[in-house]
């Protein structure tokens, strides 16, 4: 039997994947080249194609180009922009502090019967109002959302919690939002708690952050690796290396590894304090989760541990490598 090679020509879906990958890598030039290649092959771009390009341009801060794509996609290709395109443009405007322009874009959406405003649109505006110091308008925005039949969901609540955590010196407002979230049967997720952990640590309230992390399983949301990393980083930033060591213990037990940047700061902090016993213990535990850079290990060992301890530690590390 003779087998003939079958070639499947690329379609819009194929190019959408390639354009998204190029945009994600920061190569807007390559993304544009792929778009031009689509047209050369007479492959019609879809709303996903344009949405990907708009988002990439917004992320790169090229708002003028992004708005040009929005205009061209309908006028030249008869592809009307969808809610994703509008939300990307609104986020881009908000990131530049152009909140009034984002609000006007939201009203443009509301005037288009083909588009549906959703919680993501309002969450984007809520975060922006916090950033530009317009908290007084939050209630009106939430009332408008409610009047349009859009319920406050996890996306909206998380946006408000993040806003209060960044804006306030007292996180009580953020926890009040969390309480309201639970009263309305809206389940908090790891993003909710991670945001609170970061907020508490920034205020130097790492003990409260640790208690919150400990309480997360009871609240129905067990902490994950990022949660532990955030808490570990917060304790290291506060110079609480013994407390950070306890978090490291739990991380290693669960098979989680702290980020290498944080490990570097942690090891350097222990070196400065001159605690050789703690350093020996920490290096071994970091090696167990493959979070130990060779250069950092050599520097730490060479600078603080005595010869007998170095030899013992080297044997322990060798056994871990063999295992």
TrEMBL record:
| UniProt KW keywords | Repeat, Transit peptide
Positions annotated as PPR repeat = 11-45, 46-80, 82-112, 118-152, 153-188, 189-223, 224-258
Protein's UniProt keywords contain Ligase: no
Q: Which Pfam families does this one have?
A: PPR, PPR_2
> What InterPro entries is this protein classified in?
PPR/CCM1_RNA-binding, PPR_rpt, TPR-like_helical_dom_sf
Q: What is this protein called?
A: Pentatricopeptide repeat-containing protein
Organism, by scientific name, is: Urochloa decumbens
